[in-house]
Write a structure and sequence with these properties.
Blueprint: H1 2-36, H2 38-48, H3 57-80, H4 96-105, E1 119-125, E2 132-133, E3 150-156, E4 161-165, E5 168-170, E6 202-209, H5 221-255, H6 257-271, H7 276-291, H8 298-321, H9 330-346, H10 351-379, H11 385-421, H12 438-491, H13 498-529, E7 537-540, H14 541-551, H15 553-558, E8 562-566, E9 573-576, H16 578-595, E10 601-609, E11 612-620, H17 650-660, E12 664-670, E13 673-681
Length: 683
């Protein structure tokens, strides 16, 4: 119900709006016309209130025109003929076409059309005053009593005019000077009018009926004067009511303006789908409807103007809400469909093939246009040369536009590739539907999505692994502590058999090894999760390496390896956690003692390289190394058979601790030659 009411308000508001605006515009036009013709309009208004039509300005103007018309006609005949005699009493007989032209020019018809004889005339010369007349009953209207029903007589004696009404003479000339805005008689005889000597021998008498009657057929200007006033008064009264109605409608249009705007948007949505050519034809039809009936009179023009207002409203709404709608035309639509069809065909071809064919099409269009344009320009003497140039420029513009679009898309694609390479989080690359690189962008988005998914899965797996190891290690640590404690108690017992003591010794060694392994797992988990507590301070890297080797001297001496140490005497200062870094070098030396080939040498060197301190440990492996395996990963050992003692966490701890302290750790395998490298920036 609310929707129907809202729609009804919108329609009423819309109809009220353009009806009220149209009426007010028409009223404004009438007002402007009134001001422009103020004198004539005021005389016309005065005529409306005259009961006697012979007292109106229209009556004086009509008889003045009739008199001047007869005088000009008679003068024209006398100046173009020599002694010719007009046949009959019809004034218009010998020069009918000429007199009809004068009648049209003076907005009057031939006097013989007045079949009601509201105006009688006699015209001639001083010797024959009634040569031409439309009154066959009275031979002399100049003198004597007027015919029954007639009370007005105008006589021209060759120089001046005399008027008699109801037996009384009327003052024609006043002070003798004619004024166009004073409602005077526009007849010969004024002092400020040039006299015409050709009129001196002419005589004219006009007799008007007191109350004009309607002609059965034909036209009577005098009868029209009486009817025109009544019709005009009726029209003004009706128009006043219409103006009041327009104000009321304007109030409704203002109150329901929101609903009207919503309806306007709906109309604009409909017109947006129309082709520009249809809109152009519609505009032409509206203009024709407005201006094509101007000869129908003011009432008809007003009606046609009001009927055309909806058309103007639709045009205004379209211009307001559908800017740039001229682009939606038949030509562009056909070109777009052709381009879309061609694009679908091109998408099946490789990129390089598409670009080459596009260049070939461009060159063909340019060549054909130039050839045809040159031929037609020669025929038309260069008139079509501008059109040819314009077409060639247009084709170049379209090709250049496609090329620029390709360059922009290529730039965006390379930027996206760089961002993916750097590992940054980027939004998917979206290219236009008709882009040549759309498939490549789509493939790149799939690759990026796949990489992100794989990384997320790997991070999730690593996190779960660390959490599992940490939790399991924590759960093992408590019972292991109890085992170690009870083993210590057993070792303190006296009188145990020797084989039992051997068992207790093995339990002690294995439990301590398990304890160290669990501690290593904790350390790796902390380093991997970033929860390791560090005490960063300046320290001498050379001194730290020498101290580590000194603490492990017993194990080094007992081994069958020969250590070659090259550490400078001057301090090499870095910033790190000494306790964690000590563990790094301890693990590297232990790894060398455990896996080096017997009787070989182990090289430990400390060098300074471009602002960095580098410790290198090199040895020859006892076991064959696989270069494809990353032995710095947790639980990965160089001895794939696992025949030696070790947990596979030594190098992993060394790498984690080094990186946690801000250094770099790397290993290099060349056949059986193993190199571990620890590097820190100098302080």
């Amino acid at each position: 119900m609310d929707t129907k009411l809202k729609k009804s308000k919108a329609i009423v508001s819309l109809v009220s709006f353009f009806l009220s605006i149209g009426i007010l515009i028409a009223t404004a036009i009438f007002g402007i016309s009134f001001l422009v013709n103020y004198d004539y309009a005021m005389q016309y208004i005065d005529d409306l209130y005259q009961e006697d039509y012979q007292e109106t300005n229209a009556f004086r103007s009509e008889l003045s025109r009739t008199l001047n018309y007869i005088l000009r006609s008679m003068n024209a005949y006398s100046s173009t003929s020599t002694g010719a005699v007009w046949e009959g009493d019809d004034l218009a007989s010998p020069y009918e076409d000429y007199i009809y032209y004068l009648s049209e020019d003076n907005n009057s018809f031939g006097l013989d059309n007045d079949t009601a004889r509201n105006l009688l005339y006699q015209a001639g010369t001083s010797s024959d005053t009634d040569m031409y007349t439309n009154d066959t009953e009275h031979r002399n209207l100049y003198r004597g009593a007027l015919p029954d029903g007639y009370n007005f007589r105008l006589i021209f004696d060759g120089k001046t005019v005399s008027i008699e009404k109801d037996g009384k003479t009327i003052d024609v000339y006043g002070d003798g000077f004619y004024r166009s805005n004073a409602g005077m008689w526009n007849v010969p005889g004024y002092e400020n009018m040039a006299s015409n000597s050709a009129y001196e021998d002419l005589r004219v008498c006009l007799v008007a009926r007191k109350v004009p009657v309607e002609p059965v057929n034909g036209y009577s200007a005098l009868y029209d004067i009486t009817q025109r006033g009544a019709e005009t008064l009726l029209f003004l009264r009706i128009w006043g009511c219409i103006v009041i109605l327009s104000v009321i409608l304007l109030v409704f249009a203002f109150l329901w303006r929101k609903e009207r705007r919503e309806l306007s948007r709906r109309i604009a949505a409909r017109t947006a789908k129309m082709y520009f050519e249809w809109k152009f034809v519609f505009v032409i039809l509206v203009i024709i409807l407005t201006t094509g009936f101007t000869s129908s009179g003011i009432p008809s023009n007003v009606i046609f103007f009001l009927l055309s207002l909806p058309g103007y409203y639709v045009i205004a709404v379209d211009l307001r809400y559908n800017r740039g709608s001229w682009r939606h035309n038949v030509i562009n639509t056909m070109l777009h469909r052709h381009a879309k069809h061609r694009s679908e065909l091109e998408q099946k071809l490789p990129l390089e093939r598409r670009l080459l064919e596009r260049w070939d099409d461009f060159m063909k269009c340019e060549a054909v246009t130039f050839g045809i344009g040159l031929f037609l320009s020669i025929i038309t003497v260069g008139l079509l040369a501008p059109i040819t140039i314009a077409l060639m420029v247009y084709f170049a513009y379209r090709y250049g536009k496609q090329h620029r679009q390709l360059a922009q898309d290529l730039g965006r694609l390379t930027t996206q590739i760089t961002a993916v390479q750097q590992g940054g989080n980027t939004a998917p690359l979206l290219l236009p539907q008709d882009s040549d690189l759309r498939e490549a962008a789509h493939s790149l988005n799939d690759i990026e999505q796949g990489i992100s998914t794989a990384v997320e899965e790997r991070v999730k797996s690593e996190r779960m692994k660390v959490e599992l190891i940490t939790n399991v290690s924590h759960d093992i640590k408590t019972p292991l502590t109890s085992i170690i404690s009870y083993v210590d108690l057993l070792e303190q017992e006296d009188g145990l058999p020797d084989h039992v003591k051997d068992y207790i010794k093995i339990l002690d060694e294995k439990s301590l090894r398990l304890k160290n392994m669990i501690q290593d797992i904790f350390d790796v988990s902390k380093a991997a999760s970033g929860n390791m507590d560090l005490q960063m301070e300046p320290l001498d890297l050379g001194k730290l390496v020498r101290q580590t080797l000194a603490d492990m001297d017993e194990a080094i001496v007992s081994s069958q390896l020969l250590f070659r140490v090259d550490i400078p005497e001057q301090p090499v200062t870095i910033t790190a956690d000494g306790r964690r870094l000590y563990r790094v070098f301890q693990n590297l030396v232990t790894n060398a003692l455990r896996y080096s080939l017997e009787g070989t040498r182990v090289f430990v060197t400390l060098t300074e390289e471009t602002g960095a301190a580098c410790v290198t440990l090199k040895n020859i492996s006892r076991y064959e190394l696989d270069p494809t395996v990353d032995i710095t990963e947790r639980f990965v050992r160089g001895d794939s058979a696992r025949s030696t003692v070790g947990s596979g966490l030594g190098l992993s701890i060394a790498k984690s601790f080094t990186e946690a302290c801000g250094g770099e750790f790397s290993v290099q395998i060349d056949a059986d030659f193993f190199t571990a490298r620890v590097q820190f920036p100098l302080s």
